[in-house]
From TrEMBL:
Residues 1-71 form the HTH merR-type domain. InterPro entries: DNA-bd_dom_put_sf, MerR-type_HTH_dom, MerR_fam, TipA-like_antibiotic-bd, TipAS_dom. This is MerR family transcriptional regulator. It comes from Streptomyces drozdowiczii. Keywords: Activator, Coiled coil, DNA-binding, Transcription, Transcription regulation. It holds the Pfam family TipAS. The lineage of its organism: Bacteria, Bacillati, Actinomycetota, Actinomycetes, Kitasatosporales. Residues 254-284 have a biased composition (Basic and acidic residues). It comes from the Bacteria. Residues 77-104 form a coiled coil.
Length: 291
């Protein structure tokens, strides 16, 4: 029994134009022609078409399919195995992209609904690189601390962000002063500043025991995007990120040696500031440390 090109296109789910292209390329030439010259496909042609569509569904190019048809015994198994490996790699890539997209959505949702003017007023030069934020969200996706941090960030009001960034600005000025004054990274002044940063994270985002603080500091030293969250590029100095990282590690060791390595975190988390007056007291305390 023979079928016209229109019939084959209809029940194979392809276009007539596609069948014409397969014919011109030699991939699938119909076995017959009608008296009027129209293409006619027999059962063997339909079997070959099914094979073509199978390989196309797997993503094979037409020239690759042609190679398989030239010597099915020699080519089909190897090419199918190679394609399977490619598909598995692509599936893994797409799954990761899906996770990145989901995390990007979550990261975006944690933002405070501010106008561009308000955002600049509150955050100044500090900006979050979305690629880093997304990677961090993926890296710590299974961490309760990450989930808590995002939830608390999402709950911050505009005034919360003002106070948070005010603390961060005062701390950053003290860090730069200590670095510029040549204070050793494992000295009391630098370690006290590291401790201030750890308490700041605990106060505003999530409990930050020393071991977690070390990992945060390692990111500062390894990734400029992470360090830009605490010191904007225009204020950075060569070696400053490594200096802060060493200070954090020294402070963590100090706390561990002192028997204060509270890995659970909540017990040494200070109260969140509830008024501008408390924030002022914290700033005054940091200034006394800097002296």
């Amino acid at each position: 029994m023979s079928y016209s090109v229109g019939q084959v296109a209809a029940f194979a789910g392809v276009t007539v134009r596609t069948l014409h292209h397969y014919d011109r390329s030699g991939l699938l030439s119909p076995s017959g022609r009608s008296r009027a010259g129209y293409r006619l496909y027999d059962e063997a042609d339909l079997v070959r078409l099914q094979q073509i569509l199978f390989y196309r569904e797997l993503g094979f190019p037409l020239d690759g399919i042609a190679e398989i048809f030239e010597d099915p015994q020699a080519n089909a198994l190897d090419q199918l195995r190679a394609r399977q490996e490619q598909l598995e790699a692509e599936i893994a890539r797409l799954r990761r992209l899906s996770e990145v997209a989901q995390r990007a959505i979550e990261v975006q949702r944690t933002g405070v609904p501010l106008t561009p003017q308000e955002r600049f007023e509150v955050f100044g030069e500090i900006t979050a690189d979305l690629s880093y934020a997304t990677e961090a969200a993926l890296k710590w996706a299974d961490s309760p601390g990450q989930r808590e941090s995002m939830a608390r960030a999402a709950a911050h009001t505009k005034e919360d962000w003002r106070r948070l960034m005010g603390e961060a600005t005062a701390w950053r000025a003290e860090l730069l002063a200590a670095f510029d004054d040549g204070e050793p990274s494992d000295g009391e002044r630098a370690m006290d500043l590291a401790e201030e940063h750890r308490l700041h994270v605990s106060r505003w985002f999530t409990a930050c025991p020393p071991d977690m603080h070390r990992r945060i500091a390692d990111d500062f030293a390894a990734d400029p995007r992470a360090f830009a969250l605490v010191v904007p590029p225009t204020r950075q100095r060569p070696g400053l990120a490594a200096y802060l990282c060493k200070a954090v590690h020294a402070n963590a060791a100090r706390r561990v040696d002192g028997g204060d390595d509270r890995r659970a975190g909540p017990a040494d988390e200070p109260e969140r500031p509830t008024s501008p007056r408390r924030t002022d007291e914290n700033t005054d305390r940091r200034r006394r440390i800097a002296r």
